[in-house]
Structures are given as C-alpha cells and as structure tokens.
Amino acid sequence: MKLYSTQHQSPDVSLEEAIFRGLPPDNGLYMPLTIEKMDASFFETIQERNFQEIAEAVCQHLLGDDLSQEEIHGIIQQSMTFDAPLFGLEKDVEVLELFHGPSMAFKDFGARFMAAIMSHYLLKSKREIRILVATSGDTGGAVAQGFFNTPGISVTILYPKGKVSDIQEKQLTTLGGNVQALEIDGTFDDCQSLVKQAFLDEELREKFNLASANSINISRLIPQSFYYFAAYAEAKRKGLKLPIVFSVPSGNFGNLSAGLIAYQLGLPVKAFVAACNENKVVPEYLQSGEYHAKPSVETLSNAMDVGNPSNFIRMKLLAGEKWESVRKLVKGYFTNDLETKARMKEVYDRTGYVMCPHTAVAYDGLQQFKKENPGEFTGIILSTAHYAKFLPTVETTLNRQVPIPERLSSLLSKEKVAQSLGTDYASFKQYLLGK
Ligand SMILES: *Cc1c(COP(=O)(O)O)cnc(C)c1O
Q1: Does ligand 1 come within 6 angstroms of the Cβ of 110?
Q2: What confidence tens digit (pLDDT) does each residue in 177-212 have?
Q3: 3 state SS for the chain
Q4: What is the pTM of this model?
Q5: How many Å lie between the centroid of ligand 1 and the Cα of residue 109?
Q6: From the CB of 253, is ligand 1 less than 6 Å away?
Q7: Domain segments of the chain: what residues?
Q8: 255 CB less than 6 Å from ligand 1?
Q9: CB of 257 closer than 6 angstroms to any ligand 1 atom
C-alpha cells in the first residue's frame, strides 16, 4: 500500500513509514493512493468465513504488497482475538457488538492491530520505540491493553487526575510491565500539550524512538473495516434483509471512515448514518454543504464530544469528495442527552437490552433515518462500548442496578500504580529521562 498526504505537500510513503510517522510532515492525513474493489466471489461466499478469515482476506487485498501471507496470518492471529457478533434487537434492527475485546470498547480493534503490526516491523529491524499517549478515557485503556507485553515497545500514558472514571483509571494503571501510567494534576489538554512538547524535544527524540498511538494512524483505521465485512457475512448467515444501513456513533469519524473503506472495497451498503450527539458539525455540513468546526460541548456520550473531527477529510474523500456525493451515502443526524436517555430507557423497558449512551445515539440516528427513508433494509447499529463503562449514567437512566462483567469488576479490586506529576514540562522530561 502506498499512501499520500491529504495536504499534498509531502512525499508518498510506504505502509511502514505511514505507521511509524503517524502524521505526514505537512500535517495532512495519510490516505491510500488507491483502493481497488475486492472480487465479487469474495462477497458471494463471505458467509463461509469467520471473523479472522475475513480480516486476513481484507488485509491480503490491501497490504499484500507489504506483508507476506504468513505475516498477515500472524498479525491477525495475534491481534483479532475476539469477535464482533450481531445481536437481534428488534425487527430489522441489529446491534453490532464491538465491545468484546480487553478494554470493552471498539478501540481495541485498532489498538491491537496497530501494536501487532508495529511490533512486526520492529522485530524485523531490531528497533525499539517508546509510545507516548494522552488520554481522556477510552483511548488510553485500549492502547494500554493493546500494547501490553508487546516486544520492542514501551508505553507511557498520561491522564488527567480525577477526570477519568474509576474503571477507566484502573484499565490504565493496573497492567504494569511495559505500560506506565502518569497521573497529571491538570486537564486532558495539559496532558496533550506535554506529549506534544516531548515530540518536539530534540534531546528526547535522540535518546528515544518516540512514536504516537494517535487515532489518526492508518494502522488503527484499517482493522476497523473488518467488522463491517463480518457484519455483512453474519447478516447473510442469519438470512437478514439486505441491503444494510450502518448507523455509526461518531466523534472523530475514524469508525465511519473505516466503514467507507469497506464500501470502497466493494461491500454492499445502502447508506451510513453519521450519528452524533450535540457535537453536530458533520450533520450540519451534510445539511448545508458548509463545514464549520466548533468548540466541543460536554455530553453523556463523551467519547463523541468532538467539535472538529480529525478524520473529517478522510470521510469526505472516501465518500466521493463532493458534497453532493457525500450526502448521498452518508446521512447525518444528532441526538441530545435527553433523547439519548429516553432511548436507553425505552429500549431497555421493551427488550431488556442495555445500551451505553453512544450506542443509544446510534439507535436514535437509525430511527430518524428510518422515518425519512421508509423501505426494506436491515439497520445495523454499531455498539462502540459496553454499558458498564458508563455505569453511573446507565443506572440513573434505567433507574436500577445492572450487572458488571467480570472483566471490568475484577479490575476494581486491583491496585493502582501511577506516578503523579504536575503540568510543568521540566518534571515530565526528567521523568522520561529516568532522573
Ligand atoms: C472513540 C469512541 C467513539 C467515536 O469514534 P470515532 O471513530 O472517533 O468517530 C464512539 N463511541 C465510543 C465508546 C468511543 O470510545
């Protein structure tokens, strides 16, 4: 795979370079130069393949020039160790559960694949890297779990003190080994600013091979396309109505962009619903043709509180670039907190199924789409996190206690290990240098 920068001011690069650079020097985003459709025969028999087999076939098609079949097999076996099942919620509505990985959110797919492919290249060239990442919650857990025990890579995660949930904090601070947690007495922006300064610091760059695990890395996007194919395969096995409409709860629009990659690879999809909370710059763009970034506002579905989605340009390019083409394929809706809670409660009362707030936004987006587009299709809602990661919201909304899965509850009794630091760069640097 060759990749270009969306700013067109930096040279094209190989897959390996794009992965370790993260961002092109001109501050664009890396995009595949070409995405060719997969054979029709792949889609005709896709229902005979399991998740890992589908992932391998997609990888082979996209990355076959960069990696051997055996290498791809190894990377998929190492990283894609959990499924993405469909749950039949109601007539013609399915939930694609993306929370069966170690951190119980869909970011596990991207983080684990990224760790496996980075480690592959590092072992080959006998290099080591140090990853720095700032987190406001979900990313940190997925990255910590994804890179835990990965040869050649150590990880330092910065999180704002008192501003992540108990479970999220335990996910970052109880692994040990090659994962170190830094509890910063400041905000998420302070954490991010410390990481940015470190990347600009010559002395650190000379001493360590610093890398980022940012969500704009192309190696996090590619694996997120796998579950769209897997959902289609499962829909065929279950004999569900085709075509499919995917409703994607969106913040930075990585997940939806990955769906569009699947679409460009030939996956039959009727439409994508861009389901947003009150941070609705993309639904507004789809409505008016004008894109205006805004400061983010806080909502219950906080992993989607993004006012200037970093993957907006990718989404646009992948959906046909021109506004007229994009809005044919991507339909934008937004849902406020009151409606989000009403959906969580209504679905629970009717079906017994508990949704996290992000999933509820996707459910509501699909309902809005259905009203405007009557017809025969199956709506598939992407469920991006297990509800137990948002326990206080879920329990007050449903007005009852809900069970916590063992994977999360066992964390709560583990001991937190984190280094506390202020927001000044000097002490952060000293910490990194081990002084
Ligand atoms: C990150 C996240 C999202 C948003 O995904 P994007 O790829 O940024 O659009 C939605 N839900 C949950 C639970 C998340 O963690």
Answers
A1: no
A2: 999 999 999 988 899 889 989 988 989 988 988 988
A3: CEEEECCCCCCCEEHHHHHHHCCCCCCCCEEECCCCCCCHHHHHCHHHCCHHHHHHHHHHHHHCCCCCHHHHHHHHHHHCCCCCCEEEEECCEEEEECCCCCCCECHHHHHHHHHHHHHHHHHHHCCCEEEEEECCCHHHHHHHHHHCCCCCEEEEEEEECCCCCHHHHHHHHCCCCCEEEEEECCCHHHHHHHHHHHHHCHHHHHHCCEEECCCCCHHHHHHHCHHHHHHHHHHHHHCCCCCEEEEEECCCCHHHHHHHHHHHCCCCCCEEEEEECCCCHHHHHHHHCCCCCCCCCCCCCHHHCCCCCCCHHHHHHHCCCCHHHHHHHEEEEECCHHHHHHHHHHHHHHHCCCCCHHHHHHHHHHHHHHHHCCCCCEEEEEECECHHHHHHHHHHHHCCCCCCCHHHHHHHCCCCCCEEECCCHHHHHHHHHCC
A4: 0.95
A5: 12
A6: yes
A7: 72-103+221-404
A8: yes
A9: no
Residue nearest to atom 8 of ligand 1 (CA): 252
| CA 68 to ligand 1 centroid distance, Å | 31
Indicate whether residue 104 lines ligand 1 (CB < 6 A).
no
CB of 136 closer than 6 angstroms to any ligand 1 atom? no
138 lines ligand 1 (CB under 6 A): yes
Question: Class for domain 72-103+221-404, per CATH?
Answer: alpha beta
Residue 288 has pLDDT above 80, yes or no: yes
